[in-house]
């Protein structure tokens, strides 16, 4: 059963200009029509490069940014239609873990007060002692000793701070935790500790995760289903294994081939698909397929004019490319990438 | 003769009211002409400070530098400041992590690229501009003539890093130091930049010292790799050896911590416990001992030496792992089976 459902979610930020009278001169299409659903107890991984809208999407689910249009359904309730107060209550069941553990913890609050805040706001626990017992219990679950209670965020290492961030989300007994780049600020040896912790907590509490990250290896490690985002839209979605073994969208292929693998044997044997140029501006996204300006498989006409729908090509595998099947079958050949050109090579 | 020899380099930060901090604690390594060497470690291991010390870019106040650095037979650390400035940018060049803060925001790209050419080659005016355009073209920046007149903020992150590389290679340096050159970039852009660096090094025969925390980056690019921990080299080897057969438990632990894109799913990661804060002074023993699963009392009696183990492979550990790799105890992830090194 899907616990979280996004339907044609759009978040557009106005670009304003003018000194006295602000006029809206355009919009940044941060999230531009994303539909996906997350199964209860599973992990949905959202990957993409900076500027693809993945963080905005995560924040929009919790309505930390305003939704322009579309629906976010949590167990059937449309979060987009809730009043402020109702949404505030719903947040005890939908929690978030942020990227920067130091920046997201108040430096002047000790750990107990950081964790107690949510409990007080949501009226959980009868007394202070009651809440403290719950906090100690949660800290233990995330691998922190109870002597952490009276300490402040700066006294902890990066990995421990992220554990505090996780504890803050966990203490409210949420159903869904949105993890925005949960390990990207951490060193690799510590990264693995936090990833293992997230997995442990999921199996202990039956949590549902929406993990947002740029690191494909991290996402593949913990996700059941992966969605790949490019310029505000989902370009491909598949089970974690299938996405890796049989990527169908050219962008996914390029992304997979760009991730360095810590193994010289594999690295030497790999064939890289270098995609030229940079991400176009989300305020004036390219017409047609948003990836056509960088796509090595781009075909004339259709790719420039018609935006491909995310369509199901196999059970549980959706892709937004007009020519996904032809590319998979090898009927279309990629142009050799002209590595650093801003303009796509002309056909 | 090696191009660069670093012998027992140490850097200590001393504050007036603070305990001195030894960021680099006796680093020694050598680099041959045309070699690509990786310096790998996590934050706080001293990799960046090492590179700044090599370039003579550390402030003179509050920093004590010890040890010797020889570049092409010249003792770099005893050079007068003038001679060192002549050398930097022409023979030795550096690329930094953050391309935006390494460029002057109020000066057009063109003037920043030609500055090196003016300073070291005495090129002026049109000749310098043409050469700068050639360089931008060489590093794959489209429409170089137009880009020369633009300011850093008008370029994307990848383009800025290309511009920095163009400046670094302007005078065909013999040694290029790249400090986390792709960390601020997205993976697809990272792939472009790594491709460019590899290609430049191969075609020009430049030596490259690649400083990174990313084991994946060094696996594809470097000939040899030094792994740093708490300011010392703890393992040095060819890349093939290091990844197939890591001897130091820290190296093995790092490899076991990285989720691999090509690994079978569901395989648990084997993290290193604790954090870089859990360390002891090298004088008292092995700095990694508090986090090590293989430590014995022997680890806490004085500094372990860097000992050779096979062709071009050295490690600083008294209880090394994977010394005799059988199929059972050295799997492809490099993590270590229990009871692996009973002595």
From TrEMBL, chain A:
<protein>
    <submittedName>
        <fullName>Peptide/nickel transport system ATP-binding protein</fullName>
    </submittedName>
</protein>
<dbReference type="GO" id="GO:0015833">
    <property type="term" value="P:peptide transport"/>
</dbReference>
<keyword id="KW-0813">Transport</keyword>
<dbReference type="Pfam" id="PF00005">
    <property type="entry name" value="ABC_tran"/>
</dbReference>
<dbReference type="GO" id="GO:0055085">
    <property type="term" value="P:transmembrane transport"/>
</dbReference>
<dbReference type="GO" id="GO:0005524">
    <property type="term" value="F:ATP binding"/>
</dbReference>
<dbReference type="GO" id="GO:0016887">
    <property type="term" value="F:ATP hydrolysis activity"/>
</dbReference>
<keyword id="KW-0067">ATP-binding</keyword>
<dbReference type="InterPro" id="IPR027417">
    <property type="entry name" value="P-loop_NTPase"/>
</dbReference>
<dbReference type="InterPro" id="IPR003439">
    <property type="entry name" value="ABC_transporter-like_ATP-bd"/>
</dbReference>
<keyword id="KW-0547">Nucleotide-binding</keyword>
<feature type="domain" description="ABC transporter">
    <location>
        <begin position="15"/>
        <end position="256"/>
    </location>
</feature>
<dbReference type="InterPro" id="IPR050319">
    <property type="entry name" value="ABC_transp_ATP-bind"/>
</dbReference>
<dbReference type="InterPro" id="IPR017871">
    <property type="entry name" value="ABC_transporter-like_CS"/>
</dbReference>
<comment type="similarity">
    <text>Belongs to the ABC transporter superfamily.</text>
</comment>
<dbReference type="InterPro" id="IPR003593">
    <property type="entry name" value="AAA+_ATPase"/>
</dbReference>
<dbReference type="Pfam" id="PF08352">
    <property type="entry name" value="oligo_HPY"/>
</dbReference>
<dbReference type="InterPro" id="IPR013563">
    <property type="entry name" value="Oligopep_ABC_C"/>
</dbReference>
UniProtKB/TrEMBL annotation, chain B:
<protein>
    <submittedName>
        <fullName>Peptide/nickel transport system ATP-binding protein</fullName>
    </submittedName>
</protein>
<keyword id="KW-0067">ATP-binding</keyword>
<dbReference type="GO" id="GO:0015833">
    <property type="term" value="P:peptide transport"/>
</dbReference>
<feature type="region of interest" description="Disordered">
    <location>
        <begin position="322"/>
        <end position="343"/>
    </location>
</feature>
<dbReference type="InterPro" id="IPR027417">
    <property type="entry name" value="P-loop_NTPase"/>
</dbReference>
<dbReference type="InterPro" id="IPR003593">
    <property type="entry name" value="AAA+_ATPase"/>
</dbReference>
<dbReference type="InterPro" id="IPR003439">
    <property type="entry name" value="ABC_transporter-like_ATP-bd"/>
</dbReference>
<comment type="similarity">
    <text>Belongs to the ABC transporter superfamily.</text>
</comment>
<dbReference type="Pfam" id="PF00005">
    <property type="entry name" value="ABC_tran"/>
</dbReference>
<dbReference type="GO" id="GO:0005886">
    <property type="term" value="C:plasma membrane"/>
</dbReference>
<dbReference type="InterPro" id="IPR013563">
    <property type="entry name" value="Oligopep_ABC_C"/>
</dbReference>
<dbReference type="Pfam" id="PF08352">
    <property type="entry name" value="oligo_HPY"/>
</dbReference>
<feature type="compositionally biased region" description="Basic and acidic residues">
    <location>
        <begin position="329"/>
        <end position="343"/>
    </location>
</feature>
<feature type="domain" description="ABC transporter">
    <location>
        <begin position="4"/>
        <end position="255"/>
    </location>
</feature>
<keyword id="KW-0547">Nucleotide-binding</keyword>
<dbReference type="InterPro" id="IPR017871">
    <property type="entry name" value="ABC_transporter-like_CS"/>
</dbReference>
<dbReference type="GO" id="GO:0005524">
    <property type="term" value="F:ATP binding"/>
</dbReference>
<keyword id="KW-1003">Cell membrane</keyword>
<keyword id="KW-0813">Transport</keyword>
<dbReference type="GO" id="GO:0016887">
    <property type="term" value="F:ATP hydrolysis activity"/>
</dbReference>
<dbReference type="InterPro" id="IPR050388">
    <property type="entry name" value="ABC_Ni/Peptide_Import"/>
</dbReference>
<keyword id="KW-0472">Membrane</keyword>
